[in-house]
């Protein structure tokens, strides 16, 4: 039986206003209307709403979610598997940080002194693809996740060091261009953007220009990305996004 907007709002623990907003954005349009013109939501609508809320919890902007769900190749089961993978990765990272905090507390309580290396080992060798995976799989392509997981499982500390050096080199180059007052649409900036895309392809997963553009969009829409990148140089996240967008545009047929 179709549900009214107020019933769906109570069920999903969101406001009626939010549902109206999703309808206006064409993110979640109810598939039926009552004789009086009121919105009615089907079972399929509820599944779509669940996907919207899952993606929101994972930090995806609404416009990206609309594009994901509107893709003709969208696969619900594949999307759920991807979301589970992202949550597992986030839980793993948080668990490592929790243990680091516990170790720091134990050091204080026991009156001992942690070594310099021990203080920061939780941050060593962090997989730089951890959050980038949030956009790579937005089309439900589980094969890319499989490839990435197989590759990274074999990497040793030396590989992670090389990966970090390559990535840092790209962002240092972009920061230098920003510092010099260059435009992100200039060839040198786009070449660095392409170098970053090839870096992802080489070490992690297939990354089309469109995927890479979406990654750039997350650099400015997700505070985790923005704070990290702008920590290298204020404004670098926006500059990087624009370089990624320009690079993707020049590769369009």
List the keywords.
253 residues; mainly alpha; Multidrug-efflux Transporter Regulator, Chain: A, Domain 2; Globin-like; 2 domains; three-stranded antiparallel β-sheet; 13 helices; 3 strands
Q: What does this 3D model show about the protein?
A:
- The chain is an all-alpha fold and about 250 residues long.
- The protein has 2 domains: about 5-55, Multidrug-efflux Transporter Regulator, Chain: A, Domain 2 (Orthogonal Bundle), CATH 1.10.1660.10; about 75-250, Antibiotic binding domain of TipA-like multidrug resistance regulators (Globin-like), CATH 1.10.490.
- The chain contains 13 helices and 3 strands, in the order E-H-H-E-E-H-H-H-H-H-H-H-H-H-H-H.
- A 3-stranded antiparallel sheet has the order 1-3-2.
- The longest helix has about 35 residues, at about 75-110.
- Residues about 125-140 have low confidence and may be disordered.
Put the structure in a nutshell.
The chain is mostly helical. Helices cover 68% and strands 3% of the residues.
Order of helices and strands: EHHEEHHHHHHHHHHH
CATH superfamily grouping of the largest domain: Antibiotic binding domain of TipA-like multidrug resistance regulators
The gyration radius over C-alpha positions equals 21 Å
Number of helices: 13
Q: What's the count of strands?
A: 3
Helicity range: 55-70%
Alpha-beta classification: mainly alpha
Q: Bin the strand percentage.
A: under 5%
